[in-house]
Specification:
By secondary structure, the chain is α+β, with helices and mostly antiparallel strands. The protein is 24% helix and 29% strand. The chain has 5 domains: 51 residues; 78 residues; 98 residues, no CATH class; 94 residues, 2-Layer Sandwich (GMP Synthetase, Chain A, domain 3), CATH 3.30.300; 89 residues. The longest helix is centred in the N-terminal third of the chain and has 25 residues.
């Protein structure tokens, strides 16, 4: 006889009826089943506890399935089975123009880690030492949102975890994975790997793991992790110096001319000449849920446009991407793959992100390192100007309702919620305005038609005008 499991009849009432039926058979001498009796109280208590245990069993069972898991850490654990991780946080990147603050002519050295600030205190750091040469007045440098930090970790500070007994150390929140470096006390540089699956037992490798559950009251921390002695070395150095960039993610995105405050004693003035974009927080649970099976099906190789879109979504700093099939591209068929990218934070595609995309496509692509095959471009931003006549609830002021409408529309048009190549409908705009607290009804005056799907284009929010009736 094959064992079977049934998830029917496990609620409180069904369990209580089953317990009563069993009791009548097992202890027939008990004849008092009055609801006020002690015996029924015991049975009802047992039924209640059984019902609660069944709820917990169902909850645990649901966490083991991609489609039903409610917690990010459950999806991360499931992803380890396929060696797929959530997209880590990424820093906004911009170009800073540094200008002499005095009339001197000597060389001004800009050290690695030099920081520059916005008015709200958000910092941007230079990751490569440079200088303003003698007799030159300014210098353009690439700056990354975040602060360059260094920690010394002794062997006793590493902790073992899980069945693999790998060693790990908590670096805290907002760690940019590609910025992490580790140098041990013997001056051996340990190398970063996305996964240990190709590491040898003596390989001095480390990886970065995102942990979504709370650790000492803090959620969303990053662990630097060593190998297990089979895949990657697990020999702890006496001490190790770990350097990394700690970023604020999405908060670092901003327009031009915003980063204007040099920190420290550098004799320079500064301003960002390009938008700061590419800053993103850790991938959301729903994005990770939908992306995981797509990446698994690609087997980390690019062949179809669906493959490339799934793989490109794994790159930090990309809000949305559209890949045009070779046979449908604007150039000679079968020669190029056209990729349109909308960075996190909007704006034009930065050089650093573009290079990352090209390098990754080269490694994924089935034609190897044929450079130039991938034509990577910024998505064309199409402004959508909105004019709406609104009826408000009487208990709200017009200023409050207008602010709520702007919040709702900004969320609708936020990079990542809009998709390259896909337009937006009047119904979506009306629904967003209607969802704002204080709105009773809305009459959309502009736009008058749906924004159509256009290759390489992404809708962004333009001017918003709200009038009240």
């Amino acid at each position: 006889m094959n064992p079977s499991a049934s998830f029917v009849g496990r609620d409180y009432t069904a369990v209580l009826e089953w317990l009563i039926a069993q009791a009548r058979t097992v202890v027939p001498e008990i004849t008092d089943y009055n609801h006020s009796g002690v015996w029924m109280g015991i049975l009802r208590l047992l039924a209640r506890n059984t019902d609660l245990l069944d709820i917990y069993i169902d909850a645990v069972f649901s966490e083991g399935n991609i489609t039903t898991a409610r917690f990010m850490q459950s999806l991360i654990d499931l992803g380890t089975l396929l060696d797929i991780k959530p997209v880590m946080c990424s820093p906004a990147i911009t170009t800073l123009r540094l200008t002499r603050a005095d009339e001197g002519t000597g060389e001004i050295v800009i050290p690695r880690g030099a920081a520059f600030s916005r008015g709200d205190g958000v910092l941007y750091s230079v990751l490569e030492a440079t200088s303003i040469p003698e007799n030159e007045t300014d210098k353009d440098v690439v700056a990354y949102q975040g602060v360059l930090e260094t920690v010394t970790v002794y062997s006793s500070a590493w902790e073992q975890y899980g069945a693999s007994h790998r060693y790990r150390y908590n670096l805290g929140q907002g760690v940019v994975n590609w910025s992490v470096s580790m140098l041990d006390d013997l001056e051996v540089s340990w190398g970063y790997v996305e996964s240990f699956y190709r590491s040898q037992p003596q390989s001095n490798h480390f990886s970065l793991e995102y942990y979504a559950d709370k650790v000492n009251g803090v959620s969303g921390v990053y662990y630097i992790t060593l190998g297990d002695g089979v895949y990657g070395s697990n020999t702890l150095p006496a001490s190790a110096t770990i350097e990394f960039l700690r970023t604020d993610g999405q908060r670092g995105n901003c327009g031009t001319g915003v980063i204007t405050i040099p920190t420290g004693d550098l004799p320079v003035l500064c301003t960002n000449t390009t938008v700061a974009n590419g800053g993103a927080d850790v991938e959301s649970i729903e994005s990770f849920r939908t992306r995981m099976p797509l990446v698994a099906r690609t087997q980390r190789r690019g062949l179809t446009k669906e493959d490339y879109e799934a793989l490109l979504r794994s790159i930090q700093g990309i809000a949305s991407v559209q890949v045009i099939d070779r046979s449908n591209g604007p150039s000679w068929p079968y020669l190029y793959i056209f990729i349109y990218v909308h960075p996190a934070g909007g704006g034009a595609l930065g050089e650093a992100l573009q290079q990352t995309i090209e390098q990754q496509c080269t490694s994924w692509g089935h034609l190897g390192d044929w450079r130039g095959r991938y034509v990577v471009s910024s998505a064309t931003e199409v402004e959508v100007n909105i004019n709406a006549s609104v009826g408000k609830a009487y208990e709200y002021s017009e200023n409050t309702v207008t602010a709520n409408i702007n919040v709702a529309l900004n969320e609708l048009f936020e990079p990542g919620n809009t998709i390259v190549g896909r337009g937006i409908t009047l119904a979506q705009i009306s629904a967003a305005i209607t969802s704002a607290v204080g709105v009773d009804w809305v009459n959309l005056i502009a736009p008058t038609t749906n924004i159509p799907d256009t290759v390489g284009a992404v809708p962004i929010l333009g001017n918003v005008e709200v009038s009240y009736v």
